[in-house]
Amino acid sequence: MASTSQPLPGKRACKKIFWAVFPHACFILSLVIYAFLGALMFSHIEGNRKVNLSEEYRKFLQNLWHISRNLSDNMTENEEIFKEKIHALLSAAERDWFVNPKDIWTFFGSLFFCCTVFTTVGYGNTYPVTRIGKYLCMLYALFGIPLMFLVLTDMGDILATVLSKSYNEFRKLQSKILASKLCSGSICNKGDELHSRAQSKLVINEPLTLMEVLKIQPAVKRKPVKYRNAELFEMLIAREKEHMKPVRNKSIERWSSCPELDRGKTMSRVIENFDKIGKELEKLDVPIVLMVLVIFVYISCAAAILPNWETRLDFQEAFYFCFITLTTIGFGDTQLEHPKFFLFFSLYIIIGMEIVFIAFKLGQDRLIGLYKKVISFCGEKKMPSKKVYPK
Q: Rounded to whole angstroms, what are the CA distances from 169 to 138, 163, 274, 283, 387?
């Protein structure tokens, strides 16, 4: 009889961790690959386009030459009139007349553009000009935006789990500190007594006779007969269920005799992980004030770091830029000078959008609850009161 080699427990644990992390890594890797492919596509299409100087460009140069000549001939001309002429002339100018497309549509510049497309930020300072570039931009956004929202929802589940567990642990610690401060001698003794009662109710490990159960349950004997009988019946049912469970032979595992069965079970668990996307986010229930504080701290950290390479921005301008970006408003009034550093900032945007998305979801739930209370209150006010007629 051939002996089957069993995998080590460490390897089994690593496999479980791998298949648990696989769906999340799959989404993020898909988004990264999608962004890089888009950057290659747009840098090739928009960067290699030919700039044809039109007749409007020649008229622009002629008007600029006339204005400069008039200014040199008549130095006493009103400065406001000169500013108005220059402003009107520059407002009609196009950016393509002065910028080389290859300088804008580099790989990093195209990657910056792709990130602004599927994150729906859309600053507006970089946009496709060619007709095929515009068509491909619409097609790229059509598939990229749902993929981005899928990543946000998936990563939002992880952040929701971390936030909920952290908040629950904080509440437990707070309740313990408060209980230790308010605990007096009599209250603590009562608490110890209740704890011992609870333990005596739960500890039923071995089959006992009816008299032995009554002997070890003093709390049951002190109660009235009907409550004592009901509680005793529940404990006997629990003991019976515990001992009726089939004993599992741990030495014989399905994967030891047939690895294909274990592989199928693993794949079914992976599919279940895909089906659970968004469930943790639905169950999240933390105060909205806490989320606002998290957003403020998160934006403040980036606002303190961003001016180190964007020298034109101070803390307030950087805070405004981060807020406009994370909320996907994207006015485009503030432009970054170093798109290469935006690769790091893209990761910041994705995580920040998840935090803002969670905050908006919590705010939406609070608004729905508020609307329900207002509608129920108005409905109770408008209900006609029943008149009681004398007999």
A: 46, 10, 28, 16, 53
pLDDT digits (tens, 9 = 90+) for 178-191: 888 776 554 555 55
pLDDT tens figures, 252-307? 444 444 444 455 555 666 666 666 676 777 777 788 888 899 999 999 999 999 89
Amino acid identity, position 378: C
In whole angstroms, what is the distance from residue 251 CA to residue 96 CA? Answer: 74
